[in-house]
Amino acid sequence: MTEPTIIPRSEHCISRDNIDENALKVLYRLHKAGYRALLVGGGVRDLLLNHVPKDFDIATDAHPEQVKKLFSNCRLIGRRFRLAHIFFGREIIEVATFRSSHEGQDSDGIQDDAGRILRDNVYGDIEGDVWRRDFTVNALYYDIADFSVVDYTGAMEDLKNRQLKLIGDPETRYREDPVRMLRAVRFAAKLGLDIHSESEKYIFEMGHLLKDIPPARLYEEVLKLFHSGQAVICLELLRKYKLLQYLFTQISDCLDDPIFDDFIGYSLQSTDNRINEGKPITPAFLFAAMLWKPVMRQNDQFIKDGMDISMAMQNAMTSVIKQQVGMTSIPRRFSMVMRDIWHLQFRFKYRHGRRAKSLLAHHKFRAAYDFMCLRNKAGELQDDSCEWWTRIQTMSSDQQEKLLNPAKKPPRKKQHKKPG
Fold this sequence. Notes:
CATH superfamily of the largest domain: Beta Polymerase, domain 2
Shape: elongated
Oligomer: single chain
Number of domains: 2
CATH topology of the largest domain: Beta Polymerase, domain 2
Structural class: alpha+beta
Number of strands: 12
Helix content: 40-55%
Strand content: 5-15%
């Protein structure tokens, strides 16, 4: 058994003032009921890095049913991972029971022939739980009993060295859950860490395992990667490790086009800026940008084959979305917005009359306008569309009306024929 390193309160920077109030309530109630209760994972890691944690997860030796008895606002979820969710209004504090190794256990731990974990309800203690976690920096525990940090894996040293290291044998861990390769990319980008050489080596060799991950799960991972506030760096790392092809197969060769490459870079930077400024974002814009080149390429091919122009674009959008959904699910509410953004690109050429007015009033005008300006910035458009449509949005209603409906020539007077 590996002895942990215990970092007392006086030697680390975590303060209860920076821990969510509801998370503290859960920790204290579990502790007072006689259970071990520890903050674990990203919350501890981020506090040690002086980041603001996104969430606060708790690990305990209490089984899910025992947790539920302590909290009337608790709901048990999951089959692959049995978890307790404790609700405080809209906030959820997640509580997981310590897990153990599957080896030699007659229990609910199930793996497939490739070594991928299908179910993981083998309960244990903290010594076993730590080795089931993915990266050392995610395996730090904050013990509410004495406010110490518990480190079994040398994580504190890895944080000091700005290093991201898998726990255990990298090949085995990636086989257990191939999504860990995507998590490695995300944490490296988000935290500014370098992936350890041994953990890195197998990413190049095992990316193909992502083909077996359900599209719905990969969709969630895409959002975590590209809505992390570090989308530009995530893209660079996905390309470096040749993982992008398993998320967006249709753009694998499109990035060789410098204009599209720039367009994607500008789009992701715009998303990063909005996230860091606290502005709203939508998955529809992300997927619309990533799949723009495949849509246009398919559209051109349909037209070349003799298809009507209006039908070509509709069929191109349908074809590209269908192929993407085979890799990453896209909820219909977002795929419909993607279609709007793409379709409206062809209407910015109209600057007068009803077509221009209806475009300006369209409920997805702003998203389509931002998209068009990014195309212009990347050099795809060679006109003044972005400038023109930017200017018109600053005008008053009367000025817009005058610009969109220029004065018409007065009607010609009818000439009456003289009688006889």
